[in-house]
Structure to design on (481 residues):
């Protein structure tokens, strides 16, 4: 490569379109990637870096910090950048959009650092009915935006009353404070089990991309009414769109929408939450305001909420249109048509075993074994039963549904109102160890009050994006004599 020519930044900058060629720089090298643009898995976004440095973009999209990405890039090297121009790039190249992300608890299993995605160890998850905020799973698509609570404004648009602008203080003082205990689950929870069947695209979540918290804030319904919502709006409007304040390199914000009827229903319990577990929302969970849509997939619970729009259409955002949808196991990336499937809203019934861990060993001398886990269903459907098998699904026993710590102090948790079972149930089964076996396959499956049950295996529900992974959960345990 010593024989490769040197180019000035000025020369590189001239190559910023398919017509004039697309050049980029990376660590002092100059690359002509014109031919690669059409093959880029991340699509046309690649053109944003045309004529300049890749580093600021790659630091935003950490998928690129892999060996095979650098190998691809190396094929397109045409030269080196002048030493003076390399020096001038320094501040741009080393700026990290994630540098103001908050501190996180070291116990979390990190799936991706930038953007930050992490889940707690399963055994911590089933320790408490309410997940302490530091342990609550975190799913960010972009850097955490820094929002000044004093100048924060929420825009509410699309209603006959005209636009309404609310400060944080307005939200707290003009509307009654409402508290809901609700479980959030990412559509990709348990994706790693799908990955074992056949590779899927996405973060390799274990079983803990789900957590439960109390959320307090104004009801979305009350805010929409203050902004002019009346029953006749439902004649033309169908959806409520949300926009976050987190932005990608193009300035596009995170966005999603939910059906209008969920948003305005008295029983929907949709919140514009400013508190989580009795404290201000933590930065990772949407400070100062996030939407909490109980019973609905995590993706619609928009954090760092900036704008609400009542509209005839669903959100046009990438995450509503081209992601978070389910497909047939036979659909692959060549045949997938994202328009053909509805956006995930309510989630199917789910459960998993948090203890013992997969691959754990128990001593024969223990005689009994305690199996623990969680169970939850979307749409406010209550989990009514969890079945556990210690022999791979041949025989079953019903687990005891726990109410959480409060159960000991205040007696059993009262049943949620019908159709509003937003919180998970933790469960437990204590059983004698099977006398002859050297190993056990422990299995769990939950039943909700519509008698929906989990499918027994992954292959029939496998999908290319690895979402909606809710097969019977199985862990292998060895019994040590
Ligand atoms: C994904 C290569 C520039 C945005 C990818 C992947 C490769 C790749 C190989 C797939 C990674 C995987 O999943 O294992 C490259 C190369 C680039 C380049 C060689 C420059 C020569 C860019 C730029 C941007 C970008 C400048 C943004 C402005 C993305 C995004 C994805 C992606 C968003 C994820 C797509 C998805 O998972 O749906 N890129 N990339 N890339 N790239 Fe790039
Ligand atoms: N809201 C914004 N603004 N940006 C995001 O990246 N991620 C969504 C949702 N809301 C996201 C967002 C997804 S996919 C999930 S699963 C939940 O937030 C995760 O919420 P948590 O981080 O509080 O657990």
């Amino acid at each position: 490569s010593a024989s490769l020519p040197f180019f000035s930044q000025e020369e590189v900058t001239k190559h910023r379109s398919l017509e004039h060629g697309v050049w980029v720089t990376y660590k002092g090298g100059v690359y002509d990637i014109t031919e690669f643009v059409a093959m880029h898995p991340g699509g046309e976004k690649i053109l944003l870096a045309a004529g300049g440095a890749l580093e600021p973009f790659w630091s935003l999209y950490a998928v690129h910090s892999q060996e095979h990405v650098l190998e691809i890039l190396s094929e397109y090297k045409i030269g080196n950048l002048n030493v003076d121009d390399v020096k001038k790039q320094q501040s741009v190249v080393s700026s990290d959009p994630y540098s103001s992300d908050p501190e996180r608890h070291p116990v979390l299993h990190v799936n991706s650092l930038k953007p930050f995605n992490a889940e707690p160890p399963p055994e911590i998850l089933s320790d408490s009915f309410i997940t302490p905020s530091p342990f609550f799973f975190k799913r960010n698509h972009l850097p955490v935006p820094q929002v000044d609570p004093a100048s924060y404004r929420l825009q509410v648009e699309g209603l006959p009353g005209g636009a309404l602008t609310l400060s944080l203080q307005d939200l707290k003082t003009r509307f009654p404070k409402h508290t809901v205990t609700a479980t959030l689950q990412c559509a990709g929870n348990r994706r790693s089990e799908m990955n074992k069947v056949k590779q899927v695209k996405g973060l390799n979540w274990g079983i803990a991309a789900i957590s439960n918290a109390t959320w307090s804030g104004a009801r979305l319904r009350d805010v929409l009414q203050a902004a002019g919502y009346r029953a006749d709006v439902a004649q033309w409007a169908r959806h409520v769109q949300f926009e976050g304040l987190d932005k990608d390199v193009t300035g596009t914000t995170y966005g999603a929408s939910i059906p209008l009827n969920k948003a305005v229903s008295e029983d929907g319990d949709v919140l514009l939450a400013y508190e989580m577990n009795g404290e201000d929302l933590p930065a990772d969970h949407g400070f100062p305001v996030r939407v909490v849509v109980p019973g609905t997939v995590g993706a619609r619970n928009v954090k760092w909420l900036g704008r609400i729009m009542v509209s005839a259409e669903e959100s046009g955002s990438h995450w509503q249109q081209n992601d978070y949808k389910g497909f047939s196991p036979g659909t692959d990336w060549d045949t997938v048509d994202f328009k053909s499937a509805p956006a995930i809203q309510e989630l199917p019934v789910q459960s998993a075993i948090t203890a013992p861990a997969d691959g754990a060993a128990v001593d024969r001398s223990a005689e009994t074994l305690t199996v623990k886990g969680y169970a939850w269903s979307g749409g406010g459907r209550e989990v009514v039963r969890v079945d556990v098998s210690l022999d791979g699904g041949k025989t079953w026993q019903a687990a005891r549904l726990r109410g959480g710590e409060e159960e000991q102090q205040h007696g059993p948790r009262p049943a949620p109102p019908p159709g509003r079972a937003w919180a998970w149930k933790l469960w437990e089964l204590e059983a004698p160890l099977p006398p002859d076996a050297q190993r056990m396959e422990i299995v769990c499956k939950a039943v909700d009050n519509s008698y929906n049950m989990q499918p027994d295996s992954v292959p029939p529900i496998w999908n290319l994006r690895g979402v909606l992974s809710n097969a019977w959960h199985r862990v292998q345990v060895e019994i040590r004599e």
User: Anything to note?
Assistant: The longest helix spans residues 83-94. The pocket of protoporphyrin IX containing FE (ligand 1) is lined by residues 24, 33, 36, 40-42, 45-46, 48-49, 54, 57, 61, 63-64, 66, 69, 72-73, 249 (CB under 6 Å). The chain is about 15% helix and 30% strand. The chain has a mean pLDDT of 94.
